[in-house]
Amino acid sequence: QVQLVESGGGLVQAGDSLRLSCEVSDRFFSTNGMGWFRQAPGKEREFVAAINWLGDTTKYLESVKGRFAISRDYAKKMVYLQMNSLKLEDTAVYYCAARVSVDVSTVLSSYVYWGQGIQVTVSS
After folding, report:
1. Long-range residue pairs from 41-46, CB within 8 A, at least 24 positions apart, any chain
2. Phi/psi of residue 107, each to 5°?
3. 100 — phi, psi (to 5°)?
4. Which of 37, 53, 75, 123 is the most exposed place for a label (fewest CB within 10 A)?
């Protein structure tokens, strides 16, 4: 069983930065593709960013390209989402997710394990 625990969310102003962290309690961490999703009030959960097991392939939601960066630390079994130049529309609950496959995916249903989610609120 893979457990994912997110941290680092909070309330920030537009233009600020935040770094979300996801701790992965799984000895097979290095073979999982990982991703970040988000869900705003009244909206469906959407893909934000993903990284493959090697960490050399990433994908991003078009609206966050150039502002967000996903990375992973194998020694610490952590996945990060660095969010810069935050906008009001980035406000959502952010979820860390893990696949059982090694490659990168933008498809929500391809992720098997999910964290509990963490709130990110961007104010004007």
Report:
1. 43/92, 45/95, 45/108, 46/108
2. -90, 120
3. -95, -5
4. 75
d(CA 71, CA 47): 16
φ, ψ dihedrals at 116, nearest 5°: -80, -15
The letter for the amino acid at 94 is Y
Quote the CA–CA distance of 92 and 85 in Å, as a whole number. Answer: 15
> Residue 71 has what pLDDT?
97
Rounded CA gap, 26 and 2, in Å? 5
Please name the residue that has the structure tokens 């930065």. Answer: 17
- Between CA 60 and CA 38 the distance in angstroms is 12
User: Which has the closest alpha carbon to 53: 99, 103, 4, 97?
Assistant: 103
**Over the stretch 63-78, which tens digit does the pLDDT of each residue have?**
999 999 999 998 899 9
pLDDT of 28 higher than 70: no
Distance CA 80, CA 67 (A): 14
The phi, psi pair for 39, rounded to 5°, reads -140, 115
- Looking up tokens 């290095």 gives 30
